[in-house]
What we know:
Mean pLDDT: 95
CATH architecture of the largest domain: 3-Layer(aba) Sandwich
CATH class of the largest domain: Alpha Beta
Number of domains: 3
Distance between the termini: 77 Å
Number of strands: 28
Low-confidence stretches: 1-18
Shape: globular
Amino acid sequence: MKKLLSLLTLLTLGVCMSFAADTIRVACVGNSVTYGMGIPDRAEKAYPVRLQAMLGDGYKVENFGHSGSTLLRKGHRPYMKVPEFRKAVDFKADIVVIHLGLNDTDPRNWPNYRDEFNADYYALIDSFKVANPEAKVWICRMTPISHDHRRYQSGTRDWHAQIQEHIEQVAAAAGVGLIDFFAPLHARYDLFPDGLHPNADGALILAQQVYKHITGDFGGVKLPAYYSDNMVIQRDEPIRIAGTADASERVDVSLGGKKGKAYASAQGEWEVTLPQMPAGGPYKLTVRTKNRTIEYNNVWMGDVWVCSGQSNMEWRLKNCTTAQEDCAAAANQPLLHFYNMRGITDTYDNEWSVDVCEKVNCLEYFHPAKWELCSPEAAGDFSAIAYHFGKTLADSLGVHVGLVLNAVGGSTTESWIDRRTLEFDFPQVLYRWTEGDFGQDWARGRAKRNVAASKVPLQRHPFMPHYLFDAGMLPLKGLNPKGVIWYQGESNAHNVELHEQLFTLLEKSWRNYFNDPELPFYFVQLSSIAPRHSWPHFRDSQRQLAETLPYTWMAVSSDLGHPTDVHPRNKRPVGQRLAFQALRNSFGKQLVAEGPKCTGIQVKGSAILINFANAEGMKTADGAALRGFEVAGADGIFHPATAEIKGTQIKVHAKAVKTPVSVRYAWQPFTDANLINGAGIPASTFRLLVNE
């Protein structure tokens, strides 16, 4: 039956079997990747061999790969001049799969002959069409070249990207199929031992890709894992429902009386866009094909938020100082929905099993998740900050709020940025990450300890650059979040300047990924703890990022810190402060969302006058005198200062400084600074120069 279906599929695609009625010839044309270079048992595990096993006896698959071959006919080793080319033409294949272009990134080739690439590709395709006019041809987006390639930054990275664009152009203009060899492997750095050639596991992925396109069998209709009962879909935005299905398969979608249909592409992809809907529900979402119907019940239109970062975002509600009260109250929160992506293991100081290491490499770090309704049990195991954020929004807006949590303890900023962004905007951070000096010593050491049992040369870890994007963000493809709440920085606080670059790239990465250039980021400023001496600098840097980056706002938490515990247990105010910012900036609510904010300073004799916004009702949190202010003169040495509130200004002076030139506030790793406004929201750490 499988054989018959495959034959019918090929006939539908217009393939004429030129050799025998019961055998379809498949020619795998290409370079060393097709050949199987670097695979010790390539005769059994090169991708064409694996493809033969998948297709079965009704097909004859031949490997016509030649190492080092270029597509360019003036390149240093043109494929059309190697023996495999003539053999491939003489094979008179019914199906031709071409994967060329990698070696054209050589500086001998692309810089000189790039303008001839398209014409040379058309000529190669025509060669197979002449041999068999009914041949079905697919060309392939190239497999990745990793940063470990010796010429990566000297041209290969950029030329590889340019060639990919030409390949897509050729496929469209020539009317041939396009198979993506890049996307399935780009997130699998561990499968490229030499930075260029995929290993046996990578070859298997290539074979699977070709099999799907030849047979049209993409496994039937599927949707991303975050579709489930009890889900929340973003209200007041066009509703994009997308997934995969068998090639050309019709997909019908219905939601709350809205209906749409689509046909899966040759790549097995489909998408239906329904008109936007206001908050409400519950609805049933139905996705139907001829052979399968998928139904999701209790679906609501509301607001969806991604809640991410490291352990302080991950920190569970049941472990907080207000746990008993909060978990009990969760029984009365029907508007909250949780999508809790928990790791298969914690990143504590222990050695993981080989099985865990293997799952990490396969991007299976997170347990499968599904949407849950709020309950004391579900809330107790959920992020405390995300819970209080969502609760505050739901109470204020009266709409269902969906919270997607994928925070990982100890994770670095760079681990959450997609690989493509790092490759082009900050490639230095990719190199020898466990041995370099971009990350903190403890994080690199922890990663080595966790994966010590692994024998895989390129073993991955959640702290490594781009890993958590690959494992934790790629599964959210197609999600349309209202915004992001973020609490991370403890693992990057040693290098303020580096974090400034990385956080900026993080926002760029996620906004590109979610296709929303105005995606709001609401983040938590690091709390206070002794003796983390870089933290005052880091907090001030975060303040400046919030003031300069677009669609970015900050919640202060330094007043809630602990002198020795990096995980302060009182999370309720942090979640609420994030929610206040969102209510004001994403929903237009007129409320005070920030603490006193310095807008300028001026010298009056031996004192400094600081002007503040958000200053109505400025006071101290404990009723005592103001604490936390220091001033410095031209020598740059700061001295404790006396401060007093004068309306929306604060006057600061120190006996030891006759002519002050700068002032700072809450500039201690663990601070007891106590300035708040009438809304009870604290002021941020800051440092300013006169006339700055």
